[in-house]
Amino acid sequence: MVEHDGADIRGQKDIGRLLLRCADRPGLVAAVSRFLAETGANIISLDQHSTEPIGGMFMQRTIFHLPGLPAARDELERDFAVQVADPFGMDFRLTEAAKPKRVAVMASTEDHCLLDLLWRNRRGELDMSVVMVIANHPDLADAVRPFGVPFIHVPARREIRDEAEQRQLDLLRGNVDLVVLARYMQILTPSFIEQVGCPLINIHHSFLPAFVGASPYRRAKERGVKLVGATAHYVTDDLDEGPIIEQDVVRVDHRHSIDDLVRLGADVERAVLSRAVLWHCEDRVIRYGNQTICL
Amino acid sequence: MVEHDGADIRGQKDIGRLLLRCADRPGLVAAVSRFLAETGANIISLDQHSTEPIGGMFMQRTIFHLPGLPAARDELERDFAVQVADPFGMDFRLTEAAKPKRVAVMASTEDHCLLDLLWRNRRGELDMSVVMVIANHPDLADAVRPFGVPFIHVPARREIRDEAEQRQLDLLRGNVDLVVLARYMQILTPSFIEQVGCPLINIHHSFLPAFVGASPYRRAKERGVKLVGATAHYVTDDLDEGPIIEQDVVRVDHRHSIDDLVRLGADVERAVLSRAVLWHCEDRVIRYGNQTICL
Amino acid sequence: MVEHDGADIRGQKDIGRLLLRCADRPGLVAAVSRFLAETGANIISLDQHSTEPIGGMFMQRTIFHLPGLPAARDELERDFAVQVADPFGMDFRLTEAAKPKRVAVMASTEDHCLLDLLWRNRRGELDMSVVMVIANHPDLADAVRPFGVPFIHVPARREIRDEAEQRQLDLLRGNVDLVVLARYMQILTPSFIEQVGCPLINIHHSFLPAFVGASPYRRAKERGVKLVGATAHYVTDDLDEGPIIEQDVVRVDHRHSIDDLVRLGADVERAVLSRAVLWHCEDRVIRYGNQTICL
Amino acid sequence: MVEHDGADIRGQKDIGRLLLRCADRPGLVAAVSRFLAETGANIISLDQHSTEPIGGMFMQRTIFHLPGLPAARDELERDFAVQVADPFGMDFRLTEAAKPKRVAVMASTEDHCLLDLLWRNRRGELDMSVVMVIANHPDLADAVRPFGVPFIHVPARREIRDEAEQRQLDLLRGNVDLVVLARYMQILTPSFIEQVGCPLINIHHSFLPAFVGASPYRRAKERGVKLVGATAHYVTDDLDEGPIIEQDVVRVDHRHSIDDLVRLGADVERAVLSRAVLWHCEDRVIRYGNQTICL
């Protein structure tokens, strides 16, 4: 199971996260850790993965403590680029644990995923700042109100998709680092996905790639499966085909009606989506082709 | 989770199992239990299921204790047919717990499912008599020998399918109540399935309906799923489409190679197949369309 | 896994539940089902259990459909007593699915179990009517308000236990069928448990019997266990020793601090408590000595 | 879930494992990785853990590839001691992946843990060489024979404990790197544990610390728990109190007799013990007080 950063780390102002990716070669770990040591940073944790024993893609996530990080951040980034990233041909990203990601949640009428995200975040379990909830139905406004998060009703259905997406883009663009589709039941166009300018995470109510598309619980019942599941994945232009971040299942049997599958599946959906959002917000998820590496 | 009959029941000579199926209507449970009570039988357990609250298909499995069952069996069957089954339009089956099913296991070169079945059966965990192992490769002969079960090598590959199936049918027909395909890697023809004259259970190395067909672990790796699974199902003419008896999954992540998935999946395969075989041998599995009811 | 009654059953006015318990003997199932058939009732489901193959305690839960049940209920109860229960020496209870149990939830400052019960009930997943929340701290008043359930603050701590319990008894006695302790952190006296006049269900934050008593997560960390769990049980005079209704666990490892165990355990606590409350409200849980039978 | 080294690593002659432990301080990862880089070694994977964010105990496991390792090993060890370990006050251990640990398995009459270890090892799933099986009963000799491992019958019971332990020590001392107690039902004396000169891993048939001591399944049934489990731990002088390496559980209910718990628990025991042995053999398990860190 993927880890999470503890309370000691989350929100601390001198804690940084360094993510990087490059072709694997000897000396990578040494180069990065030497750079950090010489800067005065102490490595708190370091996770790496190579897609192949030799000649694969190398990825590393490093959490470090550096007194004065907020002031030193920009210089650190420049120095790392010159001294390490450029010589090794690395992509990298440097983030501060004290700056949680700004997240918008999009929902329709189902409350379980939305409320679980809001509630966990209020408890401090997730590492994000929910800046708005956008819903294409007004039903969940009352349930969201106690959490103090703006609830914005943007009617959306197939016939008015263009206007709806334009209004959503006006709200989102530049304002959020992540969009979470918490059982948002409208299809988003490739144009929207391109323009929104940040990743989107969706929860699909089946164990993908089984039951791609509509009505997965009904089809699960018809096929007579003994487990139903849920899948959190990044949204791409191909419906239900994006990189999978997390999945889980629950046992069912012949006594369960389709309604029962919906109810039991809801528990799995909210758990899976919450884990995927947490890992994303903690900079743990690296996309690699159509797969994810969760460090 | 489906139950199993305890050691108190398995193999006891006065214990009977009554399975029945008919259109649901009031008075079914009463009619059956009154019949048994008047016969002097004591109901040890009774499980029933109706596919709909009203107007569905009714299924019931009853375990009862009747002193002198072996001698009384035939008369009991006739009386039940006349007094209960015919009036209610029931299909039914009456079996004796003391007569375990005769089972043939078909295997190729992978030992994990085959050996787990043989081990569990030697320990008394399964309720069957393994009368032969048929393999299309000789590799597993040594591993089977200590169990005292005949190992029969019947070479089989696409080019000689007809001769192979004929030899297999000669061995199986009339001699077994169940054929278990324990990672038997050859496709069996509809003609074979029809002629063999008993049910076949197969283990497929994926969580069906995901990854139907060949190389499921490789395709699971390519899709980046976070769980891999296995499915035990009855064999029908449509490959991997038969009624599912049991499924399970195990968690995997980016660090696992395809070989790792094969290794981790093997544990799930053997557990799932063993449960499916046990439930079948205890007359718990009722086929209903392309689904199973496991009572 | 224990089942639940589907949406077809819950709240329907002509659906009854019959629970009974007596020394096992032949003819019990027949007598009960004949009685119901002759009354015009159709058995929807029937689950029974005997603690021993012969000579044990027999328990049965029967769901039936009887047109006109609300009007016929009292007479049905009398007739069953005379015709079946008395001759067989049965304890029994007849309830109507249309009359959900009246439940009080007692809480302190932790919101996860309380909110999950209220959420699930609002979604129609549980089969109860929450008539009040009693808390010994005012903290959760705002979180409860949107659910439209009375929130009553009754300060309680060791020094004022007698007055607090008296106030609680004044609120509860005669008004509720079940009290749920949703991480209510005060010990209740045997006198309270006796006087409250209905069962109490508690959630303990460990996998009992491991870590009975205070600070189970801290002690779990110190012992280095690899799983932490939660246990829902009926409250008896012996702390953490009452009959267990449901338990579950979650995997942890060396990277988890005590705070992490608290966070991960909270998910298990709320899931386990919700299942136990549902099963109790559906009349599925039969106490037998210090164990429970969940039919 | 703890990882395992892939087939790419296991048994490769140029792959080394470096385990180390010291008080945490800045620059540790850098110092070790620089040393390896300068030696010409390529880091394949690196896992570390610190028991506290600041001021804790630091542990690291590094897998590296160094051409010519077998010849260079001794010099590498000396250099690392002088250049890194001594300055930082480290304990460390350097092992070669090509040299599997020599393991003795001790058993009594239960075959499930023993056979699962032997079978997995034959498949190449474990990273060990089983050099002998010592049993205090002759029952399992036939089952062990096909695996080609010496089976040595050393009668042992309370009355002849001293002689038995002396014979066992004569067999084990100097010949094995690990002793696995695979449901070996005799208590070993502190003197034996001290003299045997290598770690011992035991499988206890309960979810410790629940049901320490004898007859855990019977006591689990009596307490009415809803899950039963198994625990693999290092053996210390305190029975069932040693550092836990791995645990798992399986769901049970009121229908299961004690015999059923034994049967279902056996599956958990063999899985848990196999994982613990694998992790130990791959140098993943670091003892820290009475806990284990599994990297």
TrEMBL record, chains A, B, C, D:
Domain ACT positions: 17-92
Pathway(s) per entry: Purine metabolism; IMP biosynthesis via de novo pathway; formate from 10-formyl-5,6,7,8-tetrahydrofolate: step 1/1
InterPro entries on file: ACT-like_dom_sf (IPR045865), ACT_dom (IPR002912), Formyl-FH4-Hydrolase_C (IPR041729), Formyl_transf_N (IPR002376), Formyl_transf_N_sf (IPR036477), PurU (IPR004810), PurU_ACT (IPR044074)
Residues in the signal sequence: none
A Pfam family the protein falls into: ACT
GO function term, MF aspect, one: formyltetrahydrofolate deformylase activity
Top-rank lineage group of the source organism: Bacteria
Keywords (A to Z) from UniProt: Hydrolase, One-carbon metabolism, Purine biosynthesis
Catalytic activity: (6R)-10-formyltetrahydrofolate + H2O = (6S)-5,6,7,8-tetrahydrofolate + formate + H(+)
EC number(s) on file: 3.5.1.10
Catalytic residue list: D240
Family (UniProt): Belongs to the PurU family.
PANTHER family per UniProt: FORMYLTETRAHYDROFOLATE DEFORMYLASE (PTHR42706), FORMYLTETRAHYDROFOLATE DEFORMYLASE 2, MITOCHONDRIAL (PTHR42706:SF1)
NCBIfam families (alphabetical): PRK06027.1, PurU
Biological role: Catalyzes the hydrolysis of 10-formyltetrahydrofolate (formyl-FH4) to formate and tetrahydrofolate (FH4).
Full protein name: Formyltetrahydrofolate deformylase
Organism: Mycolicibacterium austroafricanum (Mycobacterium austroafricanum)
Gene this chain is encoded by: purU
